[in-house]
């Protein structure tokens, strides 16, 4: 547990802390926001393109060896970033960090589950969820402090001690998994899914306004990526040894958990987009106040996650997830009902309620779904879950941003002020997110109250 948390939390902590360095990097390298923004975008694209390989490499090399390789790569990439003297060097470091994260993140829960009996996996996943939520909450504060007393290189250097400790623990304590040297590599599937994921993520990240969809540079990469992903699905159904085992979706509880996780990822990342716009454009708060408003969400989610995990071990999976989903819906509707003069304390309460919804509904659902999968396929299942959430959240954020721009223009055309137009568009978006969560609520009933594999284990066709 400690080994995995040292690795995955370092990735999350570094990523959230680096957000604050964007203005500093623009000044130091005399570059525009679009180019420096690739510091974040390249990490996400590299991680998304690497994740499809994780399941195959974990089967071929073993979970332990692959996770440690990712940890070494993240350590080396952090050194490259700290020593970089050009923006290109920083971008190269971020790309390498994204590749490392794509190898490490999907293996975090499989490594823990490999040494934990099924009846205690809810509890350990709750502890994992606590750390996963705390890291991004602490990251901006730590990043701001380091930038106050040092330079941007410190945001890369801060990874080194934790990464070295994580590697020492990993080499000493992680158990070697079973490797399947006979498994063949699905090259066609790899090319289809990697290029498809890359094109979709790049296209979504480049969309800045609805007008971009009318330009060939906006819709051609997106359409091309979607066609490639469609080709990958076809290839995965026909291949004897598919890169990603889509047959796992035949397991009812796992399928439901992935769909629930994707919808909740859309809700979570959608709020990361909408709430800063609401706080600053409608209410006129500064960036510091906006950032602090997100702390209650992370802290309450971290507190609730271990509690939810214990309840999952007591065979209360359905009740826990349904409660979390209903709390999420209530919080979203509450945000939709807020006016321009809403007091700050009420916003904090609703953000804390979002945290409770995430702690009970978002984090446990992944553990419940993985628990329904045969042990030998957990790495594959975790990879598919992460890929689904990444695509869903990216698409959801883009659609919400486009909705905000379109509806804002329509409200302005109807005579509303700028603040009223933004408030109207944001309220509609929060209601849409709440309705989306309600639509998938029945899926929570298919989550097994105890470890239920939902049918026979999928086998290669």
UniProtKB/TrEMBL annotation:
First-listed, main subcellular location of the protein, grouped into a coarse class: membrane
Membrane topology: Multi-pass membrane protein
Cellular compartments annotated: Cell membrane
Record's keyword terms, sorted: Cell membrane, Membrane, Transmembrane, Transmembrane helix, Transport
Record's keyword annotation contains Repressor: no
Coiled coil: none
Name of a matching Pfam family: MFS_1
Domain Major facilitator superfamily (MFS) profile: 1-452
Xref: InterPro entries: EmrB-like, MFS, MFS_dom, MFS_trans_sf
TM region(s), chain numbering: 37-58, 70-92, 98-115, 127-146, 152-169, 190-210, 216-233, 254-275, 287-308, 320-338, 344-370, 391-409, 429-448
Domain of life of the organism encoding this protein: Bacteria
Protein family (similarity comment): Belongs to the major facilitator superfamily. EmrB family.
Protein name: DHA2 family efflux MFS transporter permease subunit
Species assigned in the record: Halomonas salifodinae
């Amino acid at each position: 547990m400690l080994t995995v948390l040292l690795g995955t939390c370092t990735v999350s902590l570094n990523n959230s802390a680096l957000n604050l360095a964007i203005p500093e990097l623009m000044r130091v390298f005399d570059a525009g926001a679009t180019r420096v923004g690739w510091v974040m975008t390249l990490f996400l694209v590299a991680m998304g393109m690497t994740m499809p390989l994780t399941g195959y490499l974990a089967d071929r090399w073993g979970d332990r060896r692959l996770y440690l390789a990712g940890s070494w790569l993240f350590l080396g990439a952090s050194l490259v970033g700290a020593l970089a003297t050009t923006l290109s060097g920083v971008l190269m470091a971020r790309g390498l960090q994204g590749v490392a994260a794509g190898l490490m993140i999907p293996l975090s829960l499989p490594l823990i589950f490999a040494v934990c009996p099924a009846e205690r996996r809810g509890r350990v996943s709750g502890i994992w969820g606590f750390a996963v939520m705390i890291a991004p909450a602490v990251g901006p504060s730590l990043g701001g402090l380091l930038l106050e007393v040092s330079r941007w290189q410190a945001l890369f250097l801060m990874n080194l001690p934790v990464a070295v400790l994580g590697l020492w623990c990993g080499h000493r304590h992680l158990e070697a998994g079973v490797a399947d040297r006979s498994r063949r590599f699905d090259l066609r599937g790899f090319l289809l899914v990697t290029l498809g994921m890359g094109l979709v993520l790049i296209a979504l990240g480049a969309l800045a306004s609805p007008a971009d969809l009318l330009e060939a540079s906006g819709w051609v990469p997106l359409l091309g990526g979607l066609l490639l992903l469609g080709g990958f699905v076809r290839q995965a159904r026909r291949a004897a040894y598919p890169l990603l085992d889509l047959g796992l979706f035949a397991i009812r509880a796992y399928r439901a958990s992935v769909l629930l996780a994707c919808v909740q990822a859309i809700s979570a990342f959608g709020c990361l987009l909408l709430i800063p716009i609401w706080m600053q454009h409608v209410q006129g708060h500064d960036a510091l106040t906006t950032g602090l408003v997100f702390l209650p969400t992370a802290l309450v989610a971290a507190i609730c996650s271990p509690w939810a995990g214990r309840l999952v071990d007591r065979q209360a999976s359905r009740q826990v997830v349904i409660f979390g989903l209903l709390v999420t819906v209530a919080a979203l509707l509450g945000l939709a009902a807020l006016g321009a003069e809403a007091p700050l304390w009420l916003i904090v309460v609703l953000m804390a309620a979002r945290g409770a919804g995430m702690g009970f509904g978002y984090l446990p659902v992944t553990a419940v779904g993985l628990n329904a999968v045969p042990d030998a396929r957990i790495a594959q299942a975790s990879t598919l879950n992460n890929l689904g959430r990444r695509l869903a959240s990216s698409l959801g954020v883009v659609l919400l941003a486009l909705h905000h721009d379109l509806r804002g223009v329509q409200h302005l055309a109807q005579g509303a002020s700028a603040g009223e137009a933004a408030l109207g568009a944001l309220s509609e978006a929060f209601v849409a997110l709440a309705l989306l969560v309600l639509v998938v609520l029945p899926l929570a009933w298919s989550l097994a109250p105890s470890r239920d594999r939902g049918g026979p284990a999928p086998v290669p066709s």
